[in-house]
Structures are given as structure tokens and as C-alpha cells.
Amino acid sequence: MSVTTTRIAAVDTYDIRFPTSRELDGSDAMNPDPDYSAAYVVLRTSAGGHEGHGFTFTIGRGNDVQVAAIDALRDHVVGRPVAELCADPGSLYRDLTGDSQLRWLGPEKGVMHMAIGAVVNAVWDLAAKREGKPLWQLLADADPAWLVSQIDFRHIGDALTPGEALELLRQGKEGAADRASRLLLRGYPAYTTGPGWLGYSDEKLVRLAREAVADGFTQIKLKVGADLADDIRRCRTARETVGPDIRIAIDANQRWDIAEAIEWTKALAEFDPYWIEEPTSPDDILGHAAIRSGVHPIKVATGEHVQNRIVFKQLLQAEAIDFLQLDATRVGGVNENLAVLLLAAKFGVPVCPHAGGVGLCELVQHLSMFDFVALSGSTEGRAIEFADHLHEHFVDPARIHGGRYRTPTAPGFSATMHRAAIDTYRYPDGAFWAADLAATGTKERA
């Protein structure tokens, strides 16, 4: 079978879960016992060879629902010519978001939209592998007009037109080759959430904070929002540990109402927090604007749970955030994140992506690196979140050196998991979970 007739032959899905709740990795005020999970998808082709890998991130129960949502998209994908699909991923993005009966479940938000993101990201992974380039480079090398064609400007045209997007991308081409060389040499700034999970003891916080500074990180992040006295103690401990020159961000994971967010953040102001992240509902644009005004000069960051480009648009229009924290798997994949990156560039707001989770570091590094090379042209005030767990399950894991992400060079979106990891942590019949359920004698979900 010739390459020109190669088609998507199968869409394989997996419910993959890791028992992170047992060590309280990932714990925060709203999510005290997460089991980091991935609804994982593999696009297989009729000719074999390259596969497209993608996923969306969840925290345990409900991952089966997310997998079912991906399965519901299968008929849109199987049978598509691979060459045409990779030449225009936007064609599939538009078909998936335009399925009216599935769209009704959003529209363009929630489980269905995250499923679309997983499939679309798998297409971009396949396209980058076929081109022999890491995704950041595929995007940076792309013709600006083609990138604009990949974006849905519906509902954001009042803030960003196709013409404005084209001009931003054309400007981004200036000096791009030099920035790509610097990126390969120096990597991209990172900060770490590793010391700050809410369930960790003070002793573990201190140990990990010291290690973070020794490893070259200039910013750490602490989870807050469950108990003010505990937060004061932990912030004081962290500040005494890292000294005055290391930035400490704090993250409430949507725990507060507006007045409470302002009052609580001000109570922590003596510890010089750099930003307060997700202080309230991710859907409350005016609430974020009020908090930003109320806690100044402490900055406000949000975005990991923002459901689509339209909400990001409104956060920017309302001047509600100082940092935009896009997520690689929350919205409709690379196509919609291109829109979000362009909106941030238009409004001059730095992008500091959400990562951690399962594979989020692996994916989002590509988006930030593209932004630096071929859009914003800057790393000023920008850093990608890093959490030091679960990377060993990926074929091309995120790598950190001296507090900076090393630039991926392998073709693809860094989304491919080792087969052994899939076979071990597939729920409920993977080797780990089968043994765990047999040992506990229960059918409880992870």
C-alpha cells in the first residue's frame, strides 16, 4: 500500500491510572487525594510505522468517562487519509467540534472537548513524526498563513482577527532561527511545584525546597487554601528555607469566593508571594478582575481549568490576569492552544503553562518553545511548571537541567508512553491494578 493511500486504521484507547494519592503527590485544597491518570489514545495507520499518541489528564475516577468520550469520536477519525490529515489537522478539529449532537454536551467545554483535544493532539504527534521534527519546531517552521488556517476565530474575532494573527506570526519569524539556536543551547525557564503539595509534611517541604534551589530553580510553588494557619506556617517555613531571592508562587486551586480570596491572599502577603493562582472559579472572569485589583501588587494567574479560547479572551479583555496558564490537554488540542497563544501575544500577557500531572510537562514544553521561537520571541517573565514525577513512563520524557527545560529534539509531541507502562497501569486489568485489587479484595475504583 502506497503512502498516499495510507489511512487511519484504528483508534485505540486506554484508561491509565497511577496511585499518586498514596504518597499525596499532587494534593491540594480542592483535590486532596488525586490518582494522576491519562485517558490515552493511539492512532494506528493501515501501513504501520508511525503512530499518533495523545491523551488528556484526569485525577482518577471519571477517567473511564473520559475514555468513553474519546471512543465516541472514533468514526470521525478511522478511514481518514493520513497525508491529508497531517497536512491539515484543522479539518479534523473542525469536524470534531462541529458534530452537533456531541457538541450539545459542551459546547466546546468539559469531557467532550477534552476528548477532542486528546485526538487532535495525537494527530499533531503523528504529523510531527512524519516530518521528522519535534512539534515545537514543526510549528516554528510552519508558514504563518497555514498556522492561521488551523485556528477557529469564531467567538474571538472581536479580540483577535485572522489578519492580526497573521501579522503577529509574521513578526515572530524575525530572528526565529537565532532564537531556535539559543533554545537548543539553553533550554526554557522552569519553576517547580515539587515541594509544595498540600499533603506534604513541613520536613518534606523544607527538604524539597532546598533541593529545588540547589537544582537551579528560581521559583517554587506552594498549594494553599485549606487552612489559613497552616498556610501561614508553611509559607513562613518555605520563605525561611529559600531566602528572599527565590520567588514563591501560591495556588488555591479554585477554593475561595472573591472576598475570601482577597482576604486570604493579603494574610500571606508578608511572605512576598509572586502570584496567587486559581484563586476562585475558572469561569469567573469578573471575579478574577476584582481579585487582581484587591491583591495588587501580588499578581494573579489562572488557566489550567479554563475551558476554551472564549473564556481566555474574556480574561484578557477584562484585564483579570497577569499570567495566562494554558493547559495542553484542557482545550481542543494544539489548534485551540494556537489561538490562546496568539490572544496572549496580542494582549501582551506572559504565558506560564500548567504542567505536572501525567505527561503535561512533556506536551506543554513544545507550545512554550514555539511561542518563544516564532511568536512572542521572549522568555521574560515566563516559566513552565515542572513536577518531578511520572516522567519515566514516557519514551521522550521532559528533561530539566539547571532549572530549565532542555529542548526536545525527537520527532513528535513527546506523548508516547512505554508499552510496559500502559500494560502495568491500565485500569483495572493492568498488572499493578489487577494485583492491587486482588490484594485488597475490593472492586473500588482507584
Q: Mind telling me the C-alpha Rg? A: 21 Å
Report on the biggest sheet: 9 strands, mixed
Quaternary structure of the protein: single chain
CATH fold description of the domain at 176-419: TIM Barrel
| Low-confidence parts | none
Label the overall shape. globular
Q: How many helical elements?
A: 19
What is the CATH H-level superfamily of the domain at 176-419? Enolase-like C-terminal domain
Task: Give the beta-strand count.
Answer: 12
Q: What class would the helix/strand composition place it in? A: alpha/beta
Distance between the termini: 43 Å
Using the 3D structure, state the CATH architecture of the domain at 176-419: Alpha-Beta Barrel
Mean pLDDT across all amino acids: 96
What's the level 1 CATH class of the domain at 176-419? Answer: Alpha Beta
Strand content: 5-15%
Percent of residues in helices comes to 40-55%
Features of this protein?
alpha/beta, 19 helices, 14% strand, 446 residues, 12 strands
Question: What does this protein structure show overall?
Answer:
By secondary structure, this protein is an alpha/beta fold. It has a domain at about 175-420: Enolase-like C-terminal domain (TIM Barrel, Alpha-Beta Barrel), CATH 3.20.20.120. It has 19 helices and twelve strands. The protein has helices spanning about 65-70, 75, 80-85, 90-100, 100-105, 110-130, 135-140, 145-150, 160-175, 175-185, 200-215, 230-240, 260-265, 285-295, 310-315, 335-345, 360-375, 420-425, 430-440; strands spanning about 10-15, 35-45, 50-60, 190-195, 220-225, 245-250, 275, 300, 325, 385, 400, 405. Helix 9 packs across helix 16 (about 335-345) and helix 11 runs parallel beside helix 12 (about 230-240). The longest helix has 22 residues, at about 110-130. The model has no long low-confidence stretch (mean pLDDT about 95). Pfam families: MR_MLE_C, MR_MLE_N.
